């Protein structure tokens, strides 16, 4: 069976920490800790990856 795991979102510090912790937990053979890190990466909110700029910069009255 192929197992899928959540991927750390680029630039997210929460993901980075959990991704590191997950690798350590996996090396240490602690599946409950791996599952915990997976859940943390999956469940915390992320800001939109779309870069936004003010309408005024486009010459559109805001
Ligand atoms: Zn994240």
From TrEMBL:
This protein is called Uncharacterized protein
């Amino acid at each position: 069976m192929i197992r899928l795991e959540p991927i750390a979102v680029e630039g997210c510090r929460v993901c980075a920490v959990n991704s590191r912790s997950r690798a350590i937990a996996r090396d240490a053979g602690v599946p409950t800790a791996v599952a915990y890190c997976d859940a943390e990466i999956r469940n915390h909110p992320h800001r939109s990856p779309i870069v936004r700029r003010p309408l005024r910069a486009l010459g559109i009255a805001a």
